[in-house]
Amino acid sequence: MENRIHVEVIPQETIEEVRLRTDIVEVISEYVSLQRKGKNYWGLCPFHSEKTPSFTVTPEKQMFYCFGCNVGGNIFSFIMKKENWSFVESVRNLARRYGVSLPEKEQSPREREENRLRRRFEEINEWAASYYHDLLLRLPEGEPGRVYFAKRGVDIDTMKSFRLGYAPERWDGLLSYMQERGVQPHELAEAGLAVEKETLGKDGQHHYDRFRNRVLFSILDQRKHPIAFGGRVLDDSIPKYLNSPENAFFNKRHHLYGMHRAHQGIRELGYALLVEGYLDVIALQNAGFPNAVASLGTALTKEQAKLLRRYTSRVVLLYDSDGAGIQAAFRGGEILRDAGIRVDVLTLTGAKDPDEFLKSYGVEKFNQALSKVLTFVEFKYQTLFREQPPRNIPEKAELVIKLAADILKVSSPVEREGYERFLSLELGLTLEAVQREIASYELKKPNNERVQEYFQQKRVSSLKSRDNITNAILCKDNSVPPLPIVYLGVYRAELLLLRLLLEDISYLPKIKAMLGESFWKVPVHQQIFNYLNQDGVLPAHCDETVQSRLASLFLEELDRSQTERLLDDCIKEILSTQAEERVEDLQARMAALEKIGDMAGAMALLKEIGERLKRGE
After folding, report:
1. Is 317 exposed, middle or buried (0-12, 13-18, 19+ CB in 10 A)?
2. Angle between helices 376-387 and 413-427 (to 10 degrees)
3. Is residue 219 classed as helix, strand or coil in its secondary structure?
4. For residues 273 and 358, what is the distance between their CA atoms, to the nearest angstrom?
5. Long-range pairs for 139-144 at CB < 8 Å and ≥24 separation?
6. Residues of the chain with CATH 3.40.1360.10
7. Pairing of strands 165-167, 63-66
8. pTM as predicted
């Protein structure tokens, strides 16, 4: 059931009614102090740290946008970001607030039963978290847990905010507590909180508590609801750590400890700190690093990497410096790298983990260490070199090959060459030799496994003479590679065309007649155009990139007395650039034919180029 997805559909007209009834300034004012300036409201962005207000709310368009971090959208996307809710949850909460009735979704008997079991699972875990938490804070039986946490420097406020708990040294503590609330032992076993005995005990009980004489860490989902627990022993019992088993409603591969608090910190700081232990997360978050998270007692998974990718494109790994920690950093770095995340590695000296380091050296020393992180490639190189220094040329070649896969996965050509130069200097080899060695590794792999080039080298024709040649930009929206090079003039023309369409959809036929439907260089512009081309209506919910671009477009000032001229100028700019690109492509093909000695073919292309230039194409 964990992997089955049920999509709740709310009618578009109902979503639009919720949006229109919602006072966007009123809602956002609960999170941001806003001041009115002209038609808009301004304040400090809630999604990144800043001292000068760059966050604006436009009531007329019902949109928000930050000029500092380029995040924007409508009221639904704002609530989704701030509360970490799904789109449906955001609509439902705003509908309740503003008195909009939502249609009830009809469910099959199987769906009703699954929803009943899910609600029961959530109820049982909520009661369990309260039982363990109250026992830790208030009851005499919780004294061992209080003593343990006090020794680790965890105060009462932290115990409350993380919903920490303690399981007493009893076989039926939770069982008895739950039976008073009508929860049957088999339900506790299904939720992973009790264990069924293989044989009936002398006490006539079929079950016993899973967690006993352990401090407990509540695993909270993104709605801050407990869904599982991690327990640590207070003596030398085995296992030292015990986690809730997976079940129909909990899969540890999809969750990270501390994410219920860290998602906002990750967005604000622009990166995540990924550590190994629950107490490391608590210590770091309390020390002013709200972006710290940890995997749930296991190696990092692809699903956890995808979860992190929703909030950031950079992760700093901070694992133990022993052999197991290094291997975990290697595996985790590769998983994060494959998810499209930039990976840096922080190594602490003088302490076994971040919690101990902060207690021994303080926040300032930690920040100093954080400023000296190594890239994943540098960390891997230093580790491999330290473990087995290459003694001869073949061993140097072997070391280059061990790093080849990591370097080839780097999307930036500049960064990739930087690593190649780094290896050439470190190993005393020429840059060309290192590059050939890495290229040979790539060629040995099957075609379907070869790394795609994310950035295409594109030769600029000497015939181009307009100013926008020097203003080429890489279009890097959340799109799939390869990423096109877009000249600033074309980029600006596309923005203005979309702004004109948003203002007046009647321009659509002329744009399609002159340019077609697939001329857009920027992927997100194509997405917005597709929405407008379908029925002229933008959906209330689309991905973050589209939402942010729409918000920025609505903030574009438009001279309504000059719209026809603007439209013609934008179309001319795009057509002119398309013509120049066609000439460039012909020149490239001509050079290729000359290289292989096909002079007849080259002369034919040269003639075509001349004719195009003569016609002004």
Report:
1. buried
2. 20
3. strand
4. 15
5. 141/166, 141/168, 141/173, 142/166, 142/168, 144/169, 144/213, 144/234
6. 254-379
7. unpaired
8. 0.64
May I ask the CATH architecture of the domain 467-615? Orthogonal Bundle (1.10)
- Which positions ≥6 away from 87 have C-beta within 8 Å? 76, 80, 541
Residue ranges in 4-45 assigned as alpha helix (H)? 12-21, 24-29
- CATH code 3.90.580.10 region(s) in the chain: 12-97
Beta strand pairing status for 207-209 and 214-220? Answer: unpaired
At 399, the amino acid letter reads L
Give the phi and the psi of residue 96 in degrees, each rounded to 5.
-60, -45
**Cα(414)–Cα(10) distance, integer angstroms:** 47
Q: What is the token pair recorded at 601? A: 């073919």
Phi and psi angles of residue 155, each rounded to the nearest 5 degrees, phi first: -90, 180
pLDDT tens-digit map of 231-282: 999 887 788 889 999 998 899 998 999 998 888 788 778 899 999 999 999 9
- Tell which CATH architecture fits domain 109-250: Alpha-Beta Complex (3.90)
CATH 1.10.3720.10 fits 254-379, yes or no: no
Domain 12-97: top CATH class = alpha beta
Contact between residue 260 and residue 222 where contact means Cβ atoms under 8 Å apart: yes
Whole-number Å distance between alpha carbons of 401 and 429: 14
User: Which is it for the CA torsion 269, 273, 277, 279, positive or negative?
Assistant: negative
At residue 467 the predicted structure's pLDDT band, cuts being 50, 70 and 90, is very low
